[in-house]
Amino acid sequence: KTSVNFSQTVRLVVTSEDTQKTNPYTVTVTLAEAFSDVSPNAWYYNNVMQAAAAGIVSGRGDGTFDPTASVTRRDFAIMLTQMLGVSNDGTAVSPFIDVADDDYGVVAIAYCKSHNIISGYDDGTFQPNDTITRQEAASMIAKAMGVSKVSDELYPDDAKIASWAKNAVYLAKAAGLMKGDAGTGEFRPTATITRAEAASIMVNALNQ
Predict the structure, then answer these.
(1) Which residues of 125-140 are buried (b: 16+ CB within 10 A; e: fewer)?
(2) Closest Cα to residue 99, out of 117, 82, 75, 81?
(3) Distance of alpha carbon 109 from alpha carbon 57, whole angstroms
């Protein structure tokens, strides 16, 4: 057995069994980001780590992830576009009156608007700093993924889901993008999304 140190780029040469063919491979290992407040025992651990490794989410800069913090409408749009593989670099003209052209989320917001993932409010605003609700997140993720099958299994709190969001909520349920609480089965449509939940939604979508 050979032990290889991958702290630096390693070049491996693989020879076929009949020794007639060789293929060189260059292997570079990137260490995944670790978060001091994300326990390996937490239900969201694998989702957060996969989302971080895929570049969908990042930490707070102090070694934490802040998994229980709420997610703004802007940040959910950014996570969503990064999950789709869309670069948030560059510039864009804001489609909303309350999002500046130099806003750090303008590229993601403009992308979501142009692809009918978001529509904003009747007054021309997007309200990027507002926390996103679970039914709003369901609407965005269902549109982004283009899912078409609707679940006929209703959530126990179905009556609390807004009429405009019901189709999206059950599209997301059927596609396995979102689900109810483990204990009650309720969807909690007006509750805000946490960073751990958002990471989980993105990983569910990424694994489709």
Answers:
(1) ebbbeebbbbbbbbbb
(2) 75
(3) 16
Does an H or E element contain 49, and which?
helix 45-53
Residues of the chain with pLDDT under 70: 1, 7, 29-33
Q: What is the pLDDT of residue 208?
A: 85
pTM for the complete prediction?
A: 0.82
CA distances from 25 to 10, 13, 14, 22, 168 (A): 8, 6, 8, 10, 45
Q: Can you give the pLDDT at residue 30?
A: 61
Q: What pLDDT is stored for residue 4 in this prediction?
A: 77
Inter-residue contact 139 to 80 (CB < 8 Å):
no
CA dist., res. 52 & res. 199, Å (int): 8
Q: What is the spatial distance between Cα 41 and Cα 95, in angstroms, rounded to a whole number?
A: 42
What are the φ/ψ torsions at residue 23 (nearest 5 degrees)? -130, 125
Interior CA angle at 131 toward 142 and 127, to 5°? 90
Q: What is the dihedral of CA 145, 52, 185, 177, to 10 degrees?
A: 10
Q: Which two tokens stand for residue 77?
A: 């749009």
pLDDT of residue 160: 98
The whole-angstrom separation of Cα 130 and Cα 72 is 5
What does the pLDDT read at residue 142?
97
Whole-number Å distance between alpha carbons of 44 and 138: 18
Query: How many residues in total does the chain contain?
Result: 208
**Phi, psi of 195, rounded to the nearest 5 degrees:** -65, -35
